Please model this.
Amino acid sequence: MVINERKLVTPKDRVPPTTGLIKPDQSGDLSQSAPPHLPMSSDPPPTKQELASLAVYESAYSINPKGVTGSKPLVKSLTSADLPNPAAVTAGDVAEDMLEAGTAALAGDDAELRSSDWSDEEDSTPLTDEEGRPGGTAEVDQESDDKPYPSALRADDPMFQEHYYLRRGEPVRRDAFAEDADGNRIPQMRAAEGGWYVPVESGVQRASFKGDVERYCATQQEKERFAQIVAERDAALTTLKDVKNDLNVTSRNLKMAYKDVTLKSESLGLASGQLAVEKMYGGEGVEIKPLHATDGSERGAGWFDQIWSVTDAGGKERLVVVECKAGGGPLGTRRAGNVIAEQGTAHYFNSIVNQMDARLESRPEDDRTERLLDARADGTLDYILVRASLRPGSRGSEFNGYSHRTFDLDSFGRTS
Model:
């Protein structure tokens, strides 16, 4: 039960929204601080006579990359049904709220477990190729990644604030890996000198990309090819949900449920990566061979998700490194010397190659690392990101294709 979702403000309290940083209270809790013109939840509720002149504020303030912004009133008429009933609040309600808040950061809200990284409704009409056959690609407008605060980071946009920062009106960053519509990471906030709250600079070297995101809509045959993988992932997610709702669940069962979802999501991502390589590089006389282990022995940290050798009809080889995601999962990071580097950066690429080289030292016949470095040096290497996309179907989720984007190893991404 949510009892403090709205804040009620009488006409005398209405002042223009203010933009600027505010101080937390002495305990350091920002959620207990509010601009003086906004009443706290302990204030007495308005009388019935005041209802007609009340404005609804979604929150007292919001954290964003440019500071803390005052609330904006929404045009809405209130009735007595909009007021919380203090008598209805029980210990069970509080426990339910605490449980919901405590599990919000777990896999149920984790970007890696989201079913899609682009709108199902927006892409409900399958694309066709140049000859009108099912399947195809479409370019997506994307703002430049080098803008520190793209237009999506609007301090006065209540939808943006509610989606990324607020939970029941309190200023929190819901998802540590959340990205805005332009693919920019939502910044974390920290207490700074003097008690002010400012965005955290994590020092992570972010990836840069060549061009915009492109999307491919699956044909019916491809949907059938992915049906079993998608069904297994759906089943794993259902099991995880049931386990999380079990009050008597053991930590072992919960851990196993999360692990199963991770494995099923990885399988979906890898299958999507293979399909993307087939569609992007396949053709008459083209030979595509995996250079990664296909038995799962090279999964996890210290390996690229996939490495493919693509040889055209003229005998020219190109290497394709693929990072595969099951949906909106965040790019991974690793320490590369003194730098924390994100997948898709030169630091990350070199770090993985070096670790592979050390692991393969006992196998002198394995020349993959040398081939990767040579391909990068002579311009015959592509490093791409592939994200699977699902949509609701008549019997659960349905494979809807994938989106892909090419990393730019020769350009430094932003550091955030």
